[in-house]
Prior knowledge:
Elements: H1 2-17, E1 23-27, H2 32-43, E2 47-54, H3 64-77, E3 81-85, H4 87-103, H5 110-130, E4 135-137, E5 142-145, E6 163-166, H6 183-187, E7 189-190, H7 198-207, H8 222-227, H9 230-237, E8 243-247, E9 252-256, E10 279-284, E11 289-293, E12 299-309, E13 320-325, E14 333-340, E15 353-364, E16 371-376, E17 379-386
Parallel strand pairs: 1-2, 1-4, 2-3, 4-7, 8-11
Antiparallel strand pairs: 5-6, 6-17, 8-9, 10-11, 12-15, 12-17, 13-14, 13-16, 14-15, 16-17
Amino acid sequence: xxxxxxxxxxxxxxxxxxxxxxxxxxxxxxxxxxxxxxxxxxxxxxxxxxxxxxxxxxxxxxxxxxxxxxxxxxxxxxxxxxxxxxxxxxxxxxxxxxxxxxxxxxxxxxxxxxxxxxxxxxxxxxxxxxxxxxxxxxxxxxxxxxxxxxxxxxxxxxxxxxxxxxxxxxxxxxxxxxxxxxxxxxxxxxxxxxxxxxxxxxxxxxxxxxxxxxxxxxxxxxxxxxxxxxxxxxxxxxxxxxxxxxxxxxxxxxxxxxxxxxxxxxxxxxxxxxxxxxxxxxxxxxxxxxxxxxxxxxxxxxxxxxxxxxxxxxxxxxxxxxxxxxxxxxxxxxxxxxxxxxxxxxxxxxxxxxxxxxxxxxxxxxxxxxxxxxxxxxxxxxxxxxxxx
Length: 389
C-alpha cells in the first residue's frame, strides 16, 4: 500500500501544479477510470462537477448503467452531477456516419470520431456555457505536455504549442483514439491518469472506497453493448443485401448477407469452404461483393491516409520518418510519410491533409476507414483515416 500512497501523492502534486483556474467538469462514464479522475481532482483541491453525456437509450456502459454509477460516484465525492442529452449529436455524428461508411465498403473507426465530434466538444461547450468552467477532465490513459512545459522534441512544431503523448502504461495507452483532437481542446483538457497504470488506478480507487473500484472493464463499443453485438446493430439499420463472395479473378466461392458484416483480413466466419485458407482482401460496395484470397494477397507495402489531423506538429511539407499504428491493439511499425495533394472536396475542410505512408515491411490487413496514427516515440504527431484504393 505504500507504493499506492506514493503514486497517489505524485498524482495529486501534478494536479496541484497545473496552471490556470482549478475549475473543472469531469466526464463520468460510470467506470473506475473516470471515477478515480474525479476523486483525484477533488483531493487536489479543484472545484469539481461531474458531467455524463446521454448518448443512447437502454443498456451499455455509456447509458443507463453508467448513468447510475456516475451519479453514485458524485454522491460519494459530494459533488454535483449533470446529465447532458447528446443523443441527437451522437446519432448525427456517429451512427449515421457509421452506417454510411459500412454501406460504402469501409470499416469505420467510431471512437476517435466520437471523441472529437461528440464527447470533448459537447463537454467543453456545455461546461463553459452552463458552469463557466473552461476545462474538462476524463479518465483516458494519455498525457499532454502543455505550452508552458519544457520538452525536448526533434520535430519542428511550428505553431503547435501542446503535445499529445502516450500514456505511461503502454498496455492501456489510449492516445490512439485521441489523434483527432485540436489544439484548443488539448489546451483545456486534463488527463489525471496518464502517468498511472491500470493496476494503480484500481488500487487507488479501492483506497478511496469508490463504488466502481472493481467494476469490470467494458470490452466492446457502446453500440455493440447497446444492441447485443455489432451485427445486431447493423441489422437494425441496414436491410439484408445478399451478394457474392468471390476470388480476385471472379470465381464464385460463396454468398454473403451484407458486406457490412465483413472486414479486411477476416478469415473466420466467411461461410466458405476452399482448398486453402481464405481472407477478406476487398469489400466491393459497387458490386456488393466480398473478395477473398490467400493471406499473401492481403498484404500491402503502403496506404493512403486522408482527413489527417496534425495534432502536435504543423503539417509537414516533405517526407518524414515515423512510427505508425494501424489498430488500437497493434504495435507501432516503422514507415515513411509523404504529403500528397488534398482531394478537391476536402479543400475547405478543417482537416484537408492527405499523405502516402510507406511501410518498411509489408503489412497484413490494411483496413479502409480505420485510423492510421503517427508517432515519434511517445509523441503523437497526428493521424487520419485509411482511404480505399
